[in-house]
Every structure is written in structure tokens, then in C-alpha cells.
Automatic annotation (TrEMBL):
<feature type="domain" description="SNF2 N-terminal">
    <location>
        <begin position="19"/>
        <end position="219"/>
    </location>
</feature>
<keyword id="KW-0378">Hydrolase</keyword>
<dbReference type="GO" id="GO:0016787">
    <property type="term" value="F:hydrolase activity"/>
</dbReference>
<dbReference type="InterPro" id="IPR027417">
    <property type="entry name" value="P-loop_NTPase"/>
</dbReference>
<dbReference type="InterPro" id="IPR038718">
    <property type="entry name" value="SNF2-like_sf"/>
</dbReference>
<dbReference type="Pfam" id="PF00176">
    <property type="entry name" value="SNF2-rel_dom"/>
</dbReference>
<dbReference type="GO" id="GO:0031297">
    <property type="term" value="P:replication fork processing"/>
</dbReference>
<dbReference type="GO" id="GO:0006281">
    <property type="term" value="P:DNA repair"/>
</dbReference>
<dbReference type="GO" id="GO:0005524">
    <property type="term" value="F:ATP binding"/>
</dbReference>
<dbReference type="InterPro" id="IPR000330">
    <property type="entry name" value="SNF2_N"/>
</dbReference>
<protein>
    <recommendedName>
        <fullName>SNF2 N-terminal domain-containing protein</fullName>
    </recommendedName>
</protein>
Length: 414
């Protein structure tokens, strides 16, 4: 009885389903539910365009999905918006990476919202350009003007005012010393990276992000090409050189279950290969503890089973653990059966971190939520790039905008 009027609800995807309430032919509502990925193709979008008219309401949930102004998803949603009379955008974090994320979302609401008819006009008004040939956005300006223009179209409700949830506890760092051999590799790569960064001091070079990612990989025991959440076959050169963090995570999990035998644990990581390595160890550790995996490209049934392990309405009574790539499982799901979250490796994105933290701080949570950051150190406690990333995330800084000079300063602080 969630609707008080006759309605037919259709799920628009490869396997469609329909639900009816009352007789929708007598002035009822026709509701279509789909996802962003499915409507990227024109042959799938066209049937929706035929249904939409000036009486239609378009609702975009988790609207950060349309933050990129020239993506296929954004273009599809713009076409839908042009047919629909009204639109609502729902989002707890509308600015995922930087203020530029607002342009496409505002354009979908209407050109009159911020008065910019294209991305270049928006960039000229609010971005400060620099870097190589002054073609990179290095900072943002006039944000008070942007906020004022958007204010009449924004209705904000804080979660603390809507939900009575237990507190989120401050993250607890778990320092993991690297072996002498791994530390030797790390120092060599770090020194080479600093030398390269010094040569490109003022720019925000994509190559800098690649080099920093290599350091992050090595902190997770991986050496070779750069693999974030790609499939292993995409880069066969990546190899495992050590497993310090993995062993520390298993020890941490054992301690959690010793203190709370029925604890349900959630582990986020950045790199696919370390997630698969951890899943392999968990699958043979204790058959009495069910574990789930959430990574890109898995079968829907497998993902559904993993979600059920930590969903407050479906979780088993005993212990469980779910391992996920942060970008894959950061939004739109409820894992509130768990109140202990570990970050085996950190994604640089502030958006991914903040959204992933919220997966357990949802309706159904009954305990204070604890977060644990696994941070690699040298054999004698020396700092690594893990510390720089953790510090930036704690201060809510977006490292994607850091110049090469900023990264060099952080690495020298080690």
C-alpha cells in the first residue's frame, strides 16, 4: 500500500516485471523503473521517449551518475528530460569530485538554473585554468555565485534530522609494516616518482596519478602495471610480491570474531587482484563463515547473495564477511547488518570514500559503526603514500586536483 492511487509499475531492463495496484486504467499512474546503464543505447531509450510527455515526472536517483557532461548516460537523461515536464534529482553527494560535477546535473534540471548553456561557458565562469598549456582545471572560483543560483532549486534534508541512527566512530588506523624487501622496492619507486614530479612541478599531469597509483599498489603487495578495478587479464604484468596487508586483515577479522562471534564484517579495497586474493583465502579459512564478493563483471545472482549477507532484513544470524571493490559497492545499497568496516586499500576519491562509509550507516543499523584503515609503513614505522591519502581523505581534500608539486611534498614528508 505504498501508493494510494491505482498504478502499474514496470521494471524496464532485459528481464522486465510488472506490478499492479487497483485498476490503473481509471486515472492511474504508469511508473517505469530502470537503471542508467540500460538506457545508454538508443534502441532501449527510444521506447521511454515515446512514453514521456509534459505530464511526466523524471526522477534521477543517485544523480552523480550524470555528473559527466558528455557521457552517454548524461546524454540519454538529457533526452528524457526534454520530453518530461518535471524532473527531480536525488543525491546525498551531488559534488562527487569537484564543482564541475554540478554542471550536467543543473543542465538536466534546466538551463535557467545556472544560466550556462554549455560546458565551456560554465568552465569560463567558475574554473581557473592552468597546468600544461593552461588546459587543465587547477582550481574553482565564484562558488558563492554558483551556490546562490542553485539555492531556489535545492531542498536539503540532513540524514541526522531524518533518521535516528547510532554514531559513526572516527576511523582507526591499523599500521602494517612492509617487509624489508618490499620496503626496498617501495623506496626505489618513491624516489623515482619524486624526481619525475619535480620535473613537472606545476601541472596536474595524468601521469602523476598513474605513478601514485603504482606506489599504492606496492603498499598492497602488487607490482607491475596499473590496475585499479580492471579485470586481471587486462594487465597480465601485475604480480604479487608480498601479502602483508592481507595477513593483517585476516588477523583483524579473527580478532573481531573473537570479540563478537556473530560479527558481520565489510572489507573495501581498491585493487581487484587484492580483493580476489583475499576472497581465495577466506574461501578456505572457515567454511562456517559465509563470505561474499562484490566486483565488476560478476553474475547478478552472486552479487545478490553477497548483498543479502549484510542486508539488515536478510543477513544470517551467525558471522559473515563481504569483500568489495570500493567503486563497485559505494552507492545505492544497504549493508547495515555490519557495523565494522575495513579499508584494505584506499581509493583516492573523496566521493567513493564518503559514499562507501554510508553503506553501513543506513536504516536498520543498531550499533555504533567502526571504521579501520589499513596503512602500510616501513619496517620501522616509516610513512608511505597510504598516510598521505588517508590524511587527505580525513581532511576531505580531493587529491585528483593536486599538482605534481603537492604530491612531491607529501612523498618527501615520508
Amino acid at each position: 500500500e505504498w501508493l494510494r492511487v491505482p498504478a502499474v509499475v514496470g521494471e524496464y531492463r532485459p528481464k522486465s516485471r510488472y506490478w499492479e495496484q487497483g485498476d490503473p486504467r481509471n486515472g492511474g499512474l504508469a511508473i517505469t523503473v530502470t537503471n542508467y546503464e540500460f538506457i545508454r543505447r538508443a534502441d532501449r531509450l527510444d521506447p521511454l521517449l515515446e512514453q514521456a510527455d509534459e505530464r511526466s515526472l523524471l526522477i534521477l536517483d543517485e544523480s552523480s551518475a550524470v555528473k559527466t557532461h558528455n557521457s552517454l548516460t548524461t546524454r540519454a537523461c538529457l533526452k528524457l528530460r526534454q520530453r518530461c515536464g518535471r524532473v527531480w534529482l536525488l543525491n546525498g553527494t551531488p559534488v562527487a569530485e569537484n564543482p564541475g560535477d554540478l554542471y550536467a546535473q543543473c543542465r538536466i534540471m534546466g538551463d535557467e538554473v545556472i544560466g550556462c548553456r554549455n560546458w565551456w561557458q560554465f568552465r569560463a565562469r567558475y574554473a581557473i585554468m592552468g597546468g600544461f598549456k593552461a588546459k587543465q582545471v587547477v582550481a574553482w572560483t565564484n562558488l558563492d555565485d554558483l551556490t546562490a543560483r542553485m539555492a531556489p532549486y535545492v531542498l536539503r534534508r540532513l540524514k541526522k534530522d531524518c533518521l535516528d541512527l547510532p554514531p559513526k566512530l572516527p576511523p582507526v588506523p591499523v599500521e602494517v609494516p612492509l617487509t624489508t624487501a618490499t620496503w626496498r622496492l617501495y623506496k626505489s619507486m618513491r624516489d623515482d616518482t619524486i624526481a619525475w614530479l619535480d620535473e613537472h612541478h606545476a601541472s596536474v599531469a595524468p601521469q602523476a596519478i598513474v605513478r601514485i597509483m603504482r606506489l599504492s599498489q606496492l603498499c598492497s603487495g602488487l607490482l607491475g602495471g596499473v590496475v585499479d578495478n580492471a579485470r586481471p587479464e587486462d594487465d597480465p604484468e601485475v604480480k604479487t610480491v608480498s601479502q602483508e596487508k592481507l595477513e593483517a586483515l585476516l588477523a583483524w577479522a579473527g580478532g573481531q570474531w573473537e570479540a563478537e562471534p556473530n560479527a558481520k564484517l565489510l572489507v573495501f579495497a581498491r585493487f581487484r587482484k587484492e580483493v580476489l586474493a583475499l576472497a581465495l583465502r577466506l574461501s578456505t579459512r572457515d567454511p562456517r563463515v559465509p563470505f561474499g564478493l562484490m566486483i565488476g563483471g560478476q553474475k547478478p545472482a552472486e552479487r545478490k547473495r553477497s548483498l543479502a549477507l549484510l542486508h539488515p532484513d536478510h543477513a544470517p544470524k551467525g558471522p559473515a564477511i563481504v569483500v568489495a571493490i570500493a567503486r563497485t559497492a559505494a552507492t545505492g545499497i544497504n549493508l547495515a547488518a555490519s557495523h565494522s568496516v575495513a579499508y584494505l586499500s584506499q581509493c583516492h576519491s573523496l566521493f567513493v570514500r564518503s559514499q562507501s562509509e554510508e553503506r553501513v550507516h543506513r536504516p536498520g543499523q543498531t550499533s555504533p559503526v567502526s571504521y579501520f584503515d589499513f596503512v602500510a609503513t616501513g619496517p620501522d614505522g616509516q610513512r608511505t603514500v597510504d598516510h598521505a591519502i588517508a590524511k587527505a581523505l580525513k581532511r576531505k581534500l580531493e587529491t585528483s586536483t593536486w599538482t605534481c608539486g603537492q604530491w612531491a611534498t607529501e612523498l618527501r614528508a615520508e
